[in-house]
Amino acid sequence: MRTALTIGAMTVVGISGLVVAPLTFAAQAPGAACPEVEIIGARGTTERPGLGVVLGPLAQQLTRGLTQSVRTTAVDYPASFNYQASVRQGVTALAADIKRTASACARTRFILMGYSQGANVVGDALAGRSAGGRAAAQPAVSAALSGRVATVLLFGDPTFTAGESFNVTDGAKSGILARGDGRLDAVAQRTQSFCNRNDRFCQGGTSLAAHLDYAKFFGDAVHFTKAQLD
After folding, report:
1. % the chain with pLDDT above 90
2. Which DSSP category does 29 fall into?
3. Closest CA to 115 of 215, 222, 16
4. Which listed residue, 25, 43, 161, 217, has the most CB atoms within 10 A of its CB?
């Protein structure tokens, strides 16, 4: 509980009061059409409903940079101080988003991205791990559906685990809720996890500024995603 409150309190100090502008996308797929790619993003703790201040701009860059038609969906979950319950709701909502699109659109592929608590949500949906380290019997996203995930992009993930092959970081520590080695092996080659040195949550450091400083990686994330889709 202390950890969850720390995550919530530190994050709200950093992002409260920031206005998230409505998103517009140059290559947005028509509302009723099946997109070639669906971006599904889970925002960080206390961010307003939508993609948030980190994932919103990244979604814009991805949509403009990809040749495929794109639809963007924000995971509808609390992203609240009640951390474990919030993560569980996020996992359920994200899995439902994927299932809904997959059932209607047989060829759509997915880009899953999460920031802070949202990164925890994305990882749990794929790894079958609930907040607090208790293993679930099955991941919320089935193996068949996770096979349609083109890329997984994680930023400032509290469950960051040092030494994983997909880590993009200048620090060598694990996060405050480290997931453990190999839990995301099934999607490792399609994943990038970005974690700044001294990030308060993904490195167990002391800097909130580092936890907010992820725009510098957007170009890398877009390049990686384009390569995976191709």
Report:
1. 78
2. P
3. 215
4. 43
pTM: 0.86
Task: Supply the residues annotated as catalytic.
Answer: 116, 199, 211
Q: Which tens digit of pLDDT belongs to each residue from 45-91?
A: 999 999 999 999 999 999 999 999 999 999 999 999 999 999 999 99
Q: Which CATH number fits domain 2-15+32-229: 3.30.70.260, 3.30.470.20, 3.20.20.150, 3.40.50.1820?
A: 3.40.50.1820
Per-residue pLDDT of 169-222, as tens digits, reads 877 899 999 999 999 999 999 999 999 999 999 999 999 999 999 999 999 999
For 152, phi and psi rounded to 5 degrees? -125, 120
Q: What is the 3-state secondary structure (H, E, C) of 147-186?
A: CCEEEEEEECCCCCCCCCCCEEECCCCCCCCCCCCCCCHH
Q: Order of strands, edge to edge, in the sheet holding 70-74?
A: 70-74, 37-42, 109-115, 149-155, 191-195, 167-169
Positive or negative: CA dihedral 141, 137, 130, 193: negative
Amino acid letter, residue 220: D
Mean pLDDT for 108-136 is 85
